[in-house]
Specification:
The protein is α+β, with helices and mostly antiparallel strands. 22% of the residues lie in helices and 38% in strands. It has three helices and eight strands. The longest helix is centred in the first third of the chain and has 11 residues, at 15-25. Bound molecules: cobalt (II) ion (CO).
Length: 136
């Protein structure tokens, strides 16, 4: 069962300029910044209420976010729902007929465990399931 919306992911070309918009313009607190090699991104996390905005700048044009930017330009990239136990949730989603991009959880920002669901089985919405690290 999904607990809450953990974050929305936004693809950006210029991470510093985007952080300025969200931190100064929207007055969200920048709480984390990290290069996640496994995802091919430099990411910034900002708090909004109990949720977050995840800004994603690609490490190169051949990364998933780099290809997204080339195809669609900057903008909304994915929605992430928090779960308590991703190892239990993924087989349940498969049994419900949902197609996984990641058959196994991988490491996301701030030591979370994540998996993406394929948009062709989610009505066109790139969807991430995230089990946040303890304390987050
Ligand atoms: Co995300």
């Amino acid at each position: 069962m999904f607990g809450r919306i953990d974050h929305i992911g936004v693809a950006v070309e210029d991470l510093d300029a985007s952080i300025a918009l969200y931190a100064k313009g929207y007055e969200m607190e920048l709480v984390h910044r990290e290069t996640v090699e496994a995802q091919g991104v430099e990411a910034a996390l900002l708090d909004v209420g109990d949720g977050h905005v995840e800004l994603l700048a690609p490490l190169g044009p051949d990364t998933a976010v780099g290809k997204f930017l080339a195809r669609s330009g900057p903008g909304l990239h994915h929605v992430a729902y928090a779960v308590d136990d991703i190892d239990a949730e993924l087989p349940r989603l498969v049994a419900a007929g949902i197609e996984l991009i990641d058959a196994e959880p991988r490491v996301g920002i701030r030591a979370s465990r994540i998996a993406f669901l394929h948009p062709r089985s989610t009505g066109g919405v790139l969807t991430e399931i995230v089990e946040p690290a303890k304390g987050h």
